[in-house]
Specification:
By secondary structure, the protein is α/β, with parallel strands linked by helices. The chain has six helices and ten strands; from the N terminus they run βββαβαβαβββαβαβα. It is 29% helix and 28% strand. The strands form two sheets. A five-stranded mixed β-sheet has the order 3-2-1-4-5, with helices on both faces. Strands 8-7-6-9-10 form a five-stranded mixed β-sheet, with helices on both faces. 46% of the residues are buried.
């Protein structure tokens, strides 16, 4: 993408994180602090900018983890990105938190000779999980199973349809992986690489694929659950 300085925000899970991409480097602040994100996120952003001598006016775009995850946490990231971007007259972009869980490891592992796969899964509570499966061939990050919310047994059934990919250079990440492994330990063996998404993954992803820069009023969360409603700024 053409922008040089990116501020990134992710608060969709128990982890609260902000990141800054500037002059080819990525800086991260992160804290596991359930139910404290609203109190922490703006201070973390100010600290990150101050420590790296970057003025808010130098930010070219603001990225956010769009979910799925905690409904309140997702709203905090979206509304914080909207508010900052409106004040600075900048564009925003959102990326799935399920993709953010696996993207850094995929970028590190994937080659054109040996594509790798990343399974992101977050505990959705209510006896369900958020799940998505991605692949990376050294050039493109592709979605194999799109982001959705499922009962664990239904998630296992979907994954069995892609069983050949689950043993080929597979990255596992997210708080929901343990739930799936308790259902079928043989289907997705291995260790979880990341328990929570981190904001620096937003910048890493933006560096390798084109992101959809939008007016801040068009920033939208990805809930996966249809019964949850969200109004854009223009509708509030």
């Amino acid at each position: 993408m053409s922008v040089q300085t990116i501020l990134a925000i992710d608060t969709a899970t128990e982890n609260c994180s902000v990141a800054l991409g500037h002059n080819g480097k990525i800086f991260l602040k992160s804290e596991v602090a359930p139910q404290k994100h609203a109190n922490l996120v703006l201070g973390m952003i100010d600290e990150l900018l101050t420590e790296n001598n970057v003025d808010r006016s130098a930010i070219d775009a603001i990225g956010f983890g769009s979910g799925p995850g905690s409904f309140t946490g997702v709203r905090i990231a979206v509304s914080t990105a909207q508010g900052l971007a409106l004040g600075l007259d900048k564009k925003v972009f959102g990326l799935s938190d399920l993709k953010l869980l696996v993207v850094k490891e995929l970028l590190a592992k994937g080659t054109s000779q040996e594509p790798c796969f990343g399974l992101g899964c977050i505990d959705a509570r209510m006896g369900e999980v958020y799940l998505a499966l991605y692949s990376y061939d050294g050039q493109n990050i592709n979605t194999v199973i799109s982001e959705q919310v499922l009962k664990p047994e239904n998630a296992i059934a979907q994954l069995k349809a892609h069983q050949d990919k689950l043993h080929s250079n597979l990255v596992l990440a997210g708080s929901g992986i343990a739930i799936l492994q308790s259902q079928d330990p043989q289907l997705i063996p291995g260790e979880v690489k990341e328990l929570y998404p981190q904001a620096d993954a937003i910048i890493a992803c933006a560096q390798v694929e084109k992101v959809d820069l939008r007016d801040p009023s068009e920033a939208e969360p990805l809930y996966c659950r249809n019964e949850v409603t969200w109004k854009k700024i223009g509708e509030q």
